[in-house]
Write a structure and sequence with these properties.
The protein is α/β, with parallel strands linked by helices and 345 residues long. It is built from nine helices and 15 strands. The strands form three sheets. A seven-stranded parallel sheet has the order 5-9-4-1-2-3-10, sandwiched between helices. The chain binds flavin-adenine dinucleotide (FAD).
């Protein structure tokens, strides 16, 4: 019989981040449908509020590797903690969130355990008493359901695919799993974290809206001139008040490589589409954007999609958006920004 382990690091403030709570919900549902025991395994500096976040999961065991050595993301200590927790739980199925911290060590952990790993999963389930995992291939065009005979099977669930676990009752007591790090494993010392200010980040996975900017923002407009500075001002003002996440077409981000005038805050990380990202937000608004890839692939997981384009015959906007406004995006966003500013007050 399988044993399911929910595995996650805790945040520096001791909380369990949303991707972790989503993976816990998936692990719990998997254990229930397999009639398999569930264990919870957390690692980090100290349990903190994460202990409360897993309350009422129905797990038979709660295991932890806590201590200052495990506070920061570091390959050697994270991999040692994760492997020790999986061994202590006797886990055959390990469900963890696909965050950068976990993804970095998951393959190494699976190797240490003599198991296998699958990443970027969108669902884990059970059919006929056997676990299965779903993921997309070919830039989200084909969905495959995977089964594996090898155990342990490490399953990394992409954020945003499952409703997060809602805790109930009081925090459980944790059994400590002892992991002793050698000098070599402590070789990397984390002296601190330098990150841009959070309002300087334009990629916001938890935003309600994805705002996709296309190359039209930098093209010559009706007066024969490009208005890139206006485009920057309008887009940044909108992102500031709406807290939307910023996506881009490939043509727009590639302009920096071509040496053309570009939007200074835009990078390839913003690109959506076949060779970009496929984010999941409840709503999307594409502006000055024609391309097939951003419309067909880039925002295929966006639930409600609207577009602003001067071209009434823009086939991809018409085919893939629920509503197309045939209008000048400069004028539309100026008005939207004024309305938002008035609302904010
Ligand atoms: C192998 C391959 C992979 C690719 N992968 C990707 C990918 O991952 N992501 C991606 O985006 N592309 C990708 N592309 C490129 C893609 O095919 C398109 O070329 C690109 O998406 C077009 O970008 P765009 O719509 O921003 O620009 P354009 O095609 O130049 O469209 C600009 C649009 O702006 C509109 N416009 C201009 N001014 C205004 C205004 N004032 N108000 C409103 N609308 C206005 C125009 O009507 C036009 O529709 C890929 C291509 C290939 C070959």
């Amino acid at each position: 019989m399988d044993t399911v382990l929910f595995l996650s690091p805790v945040e520096p403030d001791g909380s369990l981040a949303k991707p972790g709570r989503e993976a816990l919900a998936a692990a719990r549902a998997l254990a229930q449908s397999l009639s398999a025991p569930l264990a919870v395994g957390l690692f980090g500096a100290a349990p903190g509020p994460a202990a409360q976040a897993v309350a009422g999961s129905g797990a038979a065991r709660h295991l932890s590797v806590f201590g200052a050595d495990f506070a920061a993301a570091r390959y050697a200590s994270d991999a040692a903690a994760a492997a020790a927790l999986a061994k202590a739980a006797g886990a055959t199925l390990v469900v963890a969130p696909h965050t950068s911290r976990v993804a970095r060590v998951a393959a190494g952990v699976a190797h240490r355990l003599g198991g296998r790993v699958d990443t970027h999963l969108v669902a884990v389930s059970a059919a006929d008493g056997k676990p299965a995992a779903a993921r997309w291939f070919y830039r989200q065009r084909m969905e495959a359901v995977l089964a594996r005979a090898q155990r342990p099977w490490v399953l990394l669930l992409d954020p945003g695919c499952v409703a997060p676990f809602e805790p109930q009752g009081s925090a459980p007591a944790f059994e400590a799993v002892v992991v002793t790090l050698g000098e070599a494993e402590k070789g990397t010392t984390v002296r601190g974290v330098r990150a841009p200010r959070s309002d300087a980040q334009t990629i916001r996975p938890d935003a309600k809206l994805l705002f996709v900017a296309g190359a039209g923002w930098t093209k010559k407009q009706a007066d024969g001139a490009a208005h890139t500075a206006d485009a920057e001002r309008l887009i940044l003002a909108f992102l500031g008040t709406s807290q939307a996440s910023l996506g881009s077409s490939k043509s727009l981000v590639d302009q920096s490589v071509d040496g053309a005038k570009v939007l200074s805050f835009m990078s390839h990380l913003n690109q959506v589409g076949q060779t970009g990202a496929t984010p999941r937000h409840p709503k999307g608004l594409a502006t000055c954007c024609h391309g097939e890839e951003p419309h067909v692939v880039g925002w295929r997981f966006i639930a409600e999609r609207r577009a602003v384009n001067l071209d009434a015959n823009c086939g991809w906007a018409r085919g893939k958006a629920d509503v197309v406004y045939v209008a000048d995006a400069f004028a539309v966003m100026e008005k939207v920004n004024a309305l938002l500013a008035a609302k904010k007050g």
